[in-house]
Amino acid sequence: MKIKTQLRIFLLGVILVPLLAVTALPAYHYLTRPDRMLFDGYKQIRSMDELPLSQRDLRVFRQLIHTLPPNVEYIILANHGTILHTTIPDFSNLSKISMQQLFQYMNETSDKYFYQLSSPPLENKADDILFISRINRDTKHKKDGFTRMLTSLLVFIMLFELFCIILIVMISQTISRSITLLSKNTERIAGGELDVPLDFVKNSKSDNEITRLTENLDKMRLTLKDDAERRTKFIMGISHDLRTPVAVIKGYTEAMSDGFYDNPLEMKKSLGIISSKTEQLETMVNTLINFVKLNQTDWVQQLKKQKIAPVLEEFSKTAVTTGGIFKRKVTAEVSVSEELEIPFDKELIQRTLENLFSNALRYTNENDSIAIRAYEEEEKIYFKIKDSGIGIAQENLEKIFDMFYRASSSRREEGMGIGLATVMTIIKAHGWKISVDSELGKGSEFIIEIPLKN
Fold this sequence. Notes:
Strand order of the largest sheet: 6-8-9-11-10
Helix content: 40-55%
Shape: elongated
Largest sheet: 5 strands, mixed
């Protein structure tokens, strides 16, 4: 149960239970007042033609009965033998009984009850009424209304205190167990235990906001583990990709230092190779720096709303021209409203589209086709680049956006393997989606989904 829910129950109990007690105790006292029993038969008494009672007479009876405790039973008897009202189970209201029968009944039950007879003063002296009350002989003492209420209140306070103590203990134990579990898991993560799943709550009753932090911690553990693996892969990839041009530069410079080249033409050629590898090395370093910058999301906060159609149209025209140079059949169709504005970084999106098109050129042959299409549908813009090239194997589809990943069947030119990783980073940072549909030997299709809402 959630801690918030437990606290709500506790507060509800603290507020509601005393309120109910304050309401219930006076109500109970009122409902058990002896004089209320007279007024249950008030209409019957008032309707009797042979026994007219005034309001004063009724007040006399009310005051008389009000002084009786609840354990006292009574009979209100008219002088002609009519029982006006009774709480004794052996008699019924408005029934007839003679004084001889009444005294005989009292004599037979005198071993069990104490009887008391009185005649309250009425306005009509001719209609004297006899008031007979009785109490069980086993009753050792009687309590007045105040004592009974005080006793009930004390019992209630004890029960309420017990309720509060039990609830506080339960909440405290829940919080304590949850914090202990959370502390244990955070210590494991701080200690670098990223390969072992964290301990979770085994039952739903102990599930609460604190224990759910463990789930988030486990997600964080997986993220940290993934980041560590990516960092290792990143370093290995850099080392591998930078080693080749560095080795070439080192080899030629050592050869030149050792006087290996006597011919000026060969010396010039070697210097040209060193210069080429130096430029390649510089390009690779710049690419890495740009990729690191993309993963810093500060620039996302500065995205400006602008028209997307001109960017897509300009890219499509350039792609058609470039396709002709590389002898590819490139077609383009852009069906996006000219006035539509969305937040995006123009330079980064252009780089993304060019990267996808560059891949399509790289993995197709002469006279292969590349289709570019952009259109609006169901509050989204879809941008698709489809080629009829070599395609990508199914087992490689989930990995092509990973940094430094190169599928042997789909990589035919030199590169660092971070092109599609950069594409994914840019797309995610914009809040867009990218997917790929491909079949080995039949081509690939990259699909970008741009939501127009939120």
